[in-house]
Amino acid sequence: xxxFLIKHLELFIILLTVMGSIFCSLxxxxxxxxxxxxxxxxxxxxxxxxxxxxxLALLIIVLGVLTLGLSSLVVMFLNxxxxxxxxxxxxxxxxxxHTLYLTVFHGSFELVGLFLGYYVSLxxxxxxxxxxxxxIGKAAYLKVLKLVIVxxxxxxxxxxxxxxxxx
Length: 167
Hints:
79% of the residues lie in helices and 0% in strands. Helix 2 runs parallel beside helix 4 (70-93), helix 3 packs antiparallel against helix 6 and helix 4 (70-93) runs antiparallel to helix 5. The protein has one domain (2-35, 45-166). The radius of gyration is 17 Å and the shape is globular. The chain has 6 helices and no strands. The chain is mostly helical. InterPro entries: SpoIIM-like. It comes from Streptococcus saliviloxodontae.
């Protein structure tokens, strides 16, 4: 059992992060009424601005390896909690169809991109803690590079979709 846990440690931490953020967003959303304003749009954002914002979040998550994954955990937890609060608030103030329309299409791509970055950070932290070295092999380096590139592509797609939906 311990070998299984260590082998899939990144996935267990991701699962715990998701469950914790869902729980917290439910608790917080209970305190928000339909008369509260939690989202205001003062500006029309461009695809590039949205992409850069999401890419910076990805960089912070991946570079969380420098804090042994702690900053990655915090950024992912807060991102997921914010998405959850927005989801529950929108669901309370509009319909399920509208809520899904606003969150699922671009959110799916955005979350996959951020989760890939979170996985990379946790993978590198686990490699460091278990192997007690900062050197990773060529295969692991290529895996990390591929995951970051794929995550970046997902974030770019999410930015385009977000402009189409919210624009």
